[in-house]
Amino acid sequence: MNPTINSPLSQDDFELIEGFLNGTLPSDQLEEVQTRIASDPAFAFQVEQIRELQVGIQRASLAAKLDSFHTELSYPEKETPIKSIRPLWFWGVAASVFLVMSAGVWWIMGQKSPEEQLYQAYFRPDPGLVTTMSGDANYEFDRAMVAYKEGDYADAIARWENLLSAKPESDTLNYFLGSAYLSSQQESRSLSYLEAVAEDLESAFYSEANWYAGLAAMKLGQNEKALIFLNASSRPQAQQLISELESN
Amino acid sequence: MQKDIFETFTQEKLTEGIRQNDERIIKWIYQKNFLKVQQMVLANSGTMEQAKDLYQEAFLSFWTGIKTGKFHPENNSALGGYLYQIAKNKWLDVVRSSGFKMTVFPEVMPEKVQEEQEDKEGYYLQIEGAFAKLGETCKELLTRFYYQKESLSALSTHFGWTEASTKNNKYRCMEKLRSSLKSES
């Protein structure tokens, strides 16, 4: 709409119009506004203009947020890790354990298949969703999510499987059960959950489910299946992994 | 209070969420419907970047349609269908523009369905541009009041103003916005 009439708007009229648009005017003022709209085109135009400005401001505020919605689409929200203070001896022991483990990993890497090595290079557990531990019906889901994020996959799996019996179609439950099984190195079980989500084009987890299903299939040596999943994932690393897998 | 996203939302709840600017619901709708639109764009000679830009444009039109009461959902998949249709219309405009080179013919791209609010899009973009040029305080004040639905008393506490000043400042900011639209028109 291009304004054709631009008369000044007093603060009293502005407040009157806002009250009218919000539906908060007492009946006498409401009648006054309706009469003025019918008889005064400039005032009627101002009412419409304020209505559109209100929508326009909200739309501009929303537009500023869309990129952050989009970023979270590919990379699920991460919580800021809470730093813990540990005694010095802890770091000494940790360093020793790390050295021993590194030597072990170096030896084991030599024994792994190319697919397992790729898996090791690309797999990072899904960081999970932000939880608020509220007292509502989703409390049990949130408790499982906390267990998942603490690495207690068995506890998370038990809780989510219990919820899944009531909501077998839930893409969120299927996705996180698949993630928990994959993180606890049960690739076949993981695939059985992830596959359902990976086929659901409307799921918010579609891309991620395809990524992790691809990794699970690859680790199981099912490379053709893995490529189908990976091709459906919009993760930036998917194309790189596909070319590495194809060159094997 | 944040609830888990696997909760099933009814169309009424989603519509109400949009009208009330419930960001959890708006984000859920955004994320739920993107991949379908992306697939449509990629299958019709578009790029990932074009899919994202087109989707965001379509999403704002979709939001405006719900917000202004131009669209009322009638069945369980109506909102998703409405958003997809807007995106498809916008992609048809791109595909049919003279600068667009098709490498593959679109499979079955139906005729464009006319959007009622299409003529308003330019005006909302003009408001968006004028809003971006306001001072930071005005932008924050108007965003908190109209988008985040904060009360005058909460705003007064936040800015350290009396309620009368908050009302007065809101009026002045709206007048600045209104006059900048006048000068641009």
Give the domain tally of chain A: 2
The helix content of chain A is 55-70%
CATH topology of the largest domain in chain A: Serine Threonine Protein Phosphatase 5, Tetratricopeptide repeat
CATH homologous superfamily of the largest domain in chain A? Answer: Tetratricopeptide repeat domain
The figure for the number of domains of chain B is: 2
Largest sheet of chain A: none
Q: What is the CATH architecture assignment of the largest domain in chain B?
A: Orthogonal Bundle
SSE arrangement of chain A, N to C:
HHHHHHHHHHHHH
Order of helices and strands of chain B: HHHHHHHH
| Spatial separation of the terminal alpha carbons of chain A | 60 Å
Unreliable stretches covering 5 or more consecutive residues of chain B = 1-6, 104-110
- The outline of chain A comes out as elongated
Q: Any low-confidence stretches of chain A, pLDDT <50, length ≥5?
A: 75-84
- Broad CATH class of the largest domain in chain B: Mainly Alpha
- How much beta of chain A, percentage-wise? under 5%
Please summarize the sheet with the most strands of chain B.
none
Mean pLDDT of chain A: 81
Explain what this protein looks like in three dimensions.
The complex is a heterodimer of chains A (248) and B (185). By secondary structure, chain A is an all-alpha fold. Chain A has two domains: 11-64; 113-246, Serine Threonine Protein Phosphatase 5, Tetratricopeptide repeat (Alpha Horseshoe), CATH 1.25.40.10. Chain A has helices spanning 11-22, 27-39, 41-63, 66-74, 88-109, 114-122, 139-149, 153-164, 171-183, 187-198, 206-219, 223-231, 236-246. The longest helix of chain A is centred in the first third of the chain and has 23 residues, at 41-63. The N and C termini of chain B lie far apart (43 Å). Chain B has helices spanning 11-19, 23-42, 48-67, 78-96, 118-132, 136-147, 152-159, 163-184. Chain B has eight helices and no strands. With 185 residues, chain B is mainly alpha-helical. Chain B has two domains: 11-116, Rna Polymerase Sigma Factor, Chain: A (Orthogonal Bundle), CATH 1.10.1740; 119-184, Arc Repressor Mutant, subunit A (Orthogonal Bundle). At the A-B interface, helix 1, helix 3, helix 4 and helix 9 of A face helix 2, helix 3, helix 5, helix 6 and helix 8 of B.
